[in-house]
Design brief:
The complex is a heterodimer of chains A (247) and B (320). Chain A has 247 residues and is of the alpha/beta class. Chain A has ten helices and ten strands. Chain B is an all-alpha fold and 320 residues long. Chain B has a domain of 214 residues. Chain B starts with a helix and ends in a 6-residue tail after the last helix. The chains are: A alpha/beta (247), B mainly alpha (320).
Chain lengths: 247, 320
């Protein structure tokens, strides 16, 4: 069976530095895969290579059987591939509700048709549902840039899911987030996975979060896949422990 | 727009219409000039304020519109045919000028657009056979609207004010459509916008093209207002003045350019012509005062005059 996302021998080199060195893995439909590894192990570079933010030096990426290697983020978004970034990426001068509508409106009709569409592009109700789900109702009409880090993090993630993508790559969703919000994020991602049925790939340093959320985990070190499998097996792998804790 | 906002707008427009009968011819001319520049600065606000693309070439489009109007109307083309021709021509040239914005941003883009303005200015000055060079083009006619002449200064003011309201309504509609949100997404975070399906190439080019078309329309009215054009008013210093109007009023706020343009066009004249006893010293010092006011404004209100309301809301004790 063709994997949903197929990453095959992807390499990204900057001069003599191999940021990603022959990474291969597959993601199945509806599957949640975790990617762990120490800082500088190439996780985000791998994400950017898959998502067209940078062009891989070699290797192939396929989505639903189609070669998407080097495709632009725009082309990937049109194919149902979404992402979040390591740092907050909200539209600061827009309200929370407008952020969510902006996240999905470009998938409704043609460019010309959108000029004559309703101001909310017919997405107001869906945006309100997401606002409810992410418990952002009390700040829905405030500018996103004026909210707390945690609230912006929730908006950031809600935006990625607003167009109901088939595949979402989440880069450190728990970074800088307090423990209660981590639990909330876990619940939200489980629910979104159930409701929308998409596949997720999650980069994260919070081991508890990743071990609870992901049935399959990949550990990267120095641009390579060091270990992969069920979370418990990866967590107890001697090489993984050495990579994180040193010899 | 809220009901109170709509009522306020109607009252202001009605007051302006009534004021035209009470003011001197030169004052009505200034009010008409303000309306004409507003067409260009509202377009620039879309490009700079809403879509976040720096432009120092707006006066070039203003000039292209004016020269297209002057040349075609001299050939006997009617105003209402010339108007869309100038708008479409500026839209097309604006699309082309948008291409550098796909490669460079901020001050690099500012210099690219400034270079375009200098190029257009030189063409206007040196291509005498087409543009009349420094001698310009004179005897540009004013249009007739529904059989009524707009040769009179009040009639032309009404015509320009009504046209400005139509253009403003179109821009208001556009900025409240999903396009407006896409422009804002492009301004706030182009990388995230692209990952969410926003075609940043298309919207960047459209932001330039629509802004340019507005300036071109303004140029057509300018040619009819002054009835004589030469390259001077389309120098890049006019682009700087237009950008200043957008920033002084409040970049990315719909009524920002309205406030900014009124200040930039009318304040120096009001200060110069002031007959109030304690303001008479301004007749000699008005440009110095104006310069100091702009510097102070940029230091204390970088968000423009319309950002005062936001500051007040955020201040302790202000409304939330």
């Amino acid at each position: 069976m063709t994997p949903f996302l197929e990453v095959k021998d992807v390499k990204k080199q900057y001069g003599a530095i191999k940021a990603v060195d022959g990474v291969t893995f597959n993601v199945g439909p509806g599957e949640i895969v975790g990617v762990i590894g120490p800082n500088g192990s190439g996780k985000t570079t791998l994400f950017n290579s898959i998502l067209g933010q940078i062009k891989p030096t070699s290797g192939h990426v396929a989505f639903c059987g189609e070669d998407i290697t080097g495709m632009s983020p725009l082309e990937l978004s049109r194919r149902g591939v979404g992402r979040t970034f390591q740092t907050l990426q909200v539209f600061g001068k827009m309200s929370v509700r407008d952020n969510l509508i902006a996240a999905a409106q470009e998938f409704k009709g043609t460019l010309g048709a959108r000029l004559f569409a309703a101001p909310d592009a017919g997405l107001g109700q869906h945006a309100d549902q997401m606002i409810e789900m992410f418990r952002l109702k009390h700040v829905a009409h405030l500018d996103a840039g004026n909210l707390s880090y945690g609230q912006q993090k929730l908006i950031d993630i809600a935006m990625a899911f607003m167009p109901a993508p088939r595949l979402v790559l989440l880069d450190e969703p728990c970074a800088g987030v307090n423990p209660s919000l981590v639990d909330q994020l876990h619940e939200l991602l489980v629910e979104l996975n159930k409701v929308q049925g998409g596949s997720f790939v999650v980069i994260e340093h919070n081991m508890d979060f990743i071990m609870k959320l992901c049935p399959h985990v990949i550990c990267m070190v120095e641009g390579r896949v060091l270990a992969e499998g069920p979370p418990q097996a990866v967590q107890s792998n001697r090489q993984v422990l050495e990579a994180y804790l040193g010899n | 727009m809220s009901a109170a906002g709509k009522i306020a707008l109607i009252v202001v427009v009605a007051a302006l219409a009534a004021l035209a009968w009470m003011l001197k011819r030169s004052d009505v001319y200034l009010m008409t000039l303000c309306c004409v520049y507003l067409m260009a600065t509202m377009g620039l606000n879309l490009t700079v304020g809403y879509a976040g693309q720096m432009s120092l070439g707006q006066a070039a489009f203003f000039g292209i519109g004016a020269y297209i109007a002057a040349i075609l109307m001299k050939f006997g083309w009617p105003f209402f045919v010339v108007l869309p021709v100038a708008a479409i021509a500026c839209f097309a040239i604006g699309l082309a000028l948008g291409f550098p914005a796909l490669r460079v941003q901020h001050h690099y883009l500012a210099f690219a657009t400034l270079g375009f303005n200098v190029l257009v200015f030189l063409v206007m000055r040196n291509e005498e056979k087409i543009t009349g060079g420094t001698f310009g083009i004179s005897n540009i006619p004013r249009p007739s609207v529904l059989g009524m002449s707009t040769d009179g200064h009040i009639a032309f003011f009404y015509f320009t004010l009504a046209s400005l309201l139509v253009l403003g309504a179109l821009l208001w509609y556009l900025l409240r459509s999903p396009w407006g949100r896409a422009f804002a997404a492009l301004r706030d975070n182009p990388i995230r916008a692209e990952s969410l399906g926003v075609n940043i190439t298309a919207y960047t080019l459209l932001a330039f093209a629509i802004g340019a078309a507005c300036a071109g329309i303004g140029g057509v009215y300018y040619a009819s207002l002054v009835e004589f054009i030469e390259p001077g008013p389309f120098h890049f210093s006019t682009s700087l003045m237009m950008l200043l109007a957008v920033i002084v009023g409040g970049s990315g706020r719909f009524f920002g350019p309205v406030v900014g343009t009124i200040i930039i066009i009318l304040l120096p004249e009001a200060l110069r012509a002031s007959n109030v006893e304690w303001l008479k010293f301004m007749q000699k010092w008005y440009l110095v005062f104006f310069g100091v006011a702009v510097v102070a404004l940029m230091v204390w209100l970088p968000g423009g005059i319309l950002s005062i309301a936001d500051r007040w809301k955020k201040a302790p004790g202000g409304t939330k």
